[in-house]
Amino acid sequence: MQFGVPIACKKYNLEHNNNPIERYNGKIADRIKAIRSGFKSFDDAKCFMDLRRTIHNFVNPNQGLNEKTPAEMAKINLELGRNKLLELIEAVAKS
């Protein structure tokens, strides 16, 4: 997938658009601000980032992937129903 460079940035001869990455980083920053106290340890931060990655890959559909999750595009079929996050948690708890 390729993204175009905004017209305002073409005068600087930029070849890539980092807007999707900046948006993702902004979402993480907003979530950390909501936590307010920050993380007590590196392990807490790692658990948070692992959860964000799991939600991104298995729960949230992506507009660029025709409203499918990255896992669905990779043909990883967990047969999750309407409440994907809850069913994913229940599946992991059973194993």
Describe the structure.
With 95 residues, the chain is mainly α. It is flat and about 55 Å long. The protein starts with 6 loop residues before the first helix and ends with a helix. 1% of the residues are buried.
Provide a concise account of the structure shown:
The protein has about 100 residues and is mostly helical. About 55% of the residues lie in helices and about 0% in strands.
Key phrases:
single chain; 95 residues; mainly alpha; 5 helices; 0% strand
Describe the global form: flat
Q: Give the helix tally.
A: 5
Rg over CA atoms: 17 Å
**Count of separate structural domains:** 2
Largest sheet: none
Note the beta-strand portion.
under 5%
Q: Ranges with pLDDT <50 over ≥5 residues? A: none
Counting helices, strands and paired strands, the structural category is mainly alpha
Fraction in helix? 55-70%
Secondary-structure blueprint of this entry?
Layout: H1 7-10, H2 19-35, H3 42-58, H4 70-73, H5 84-94
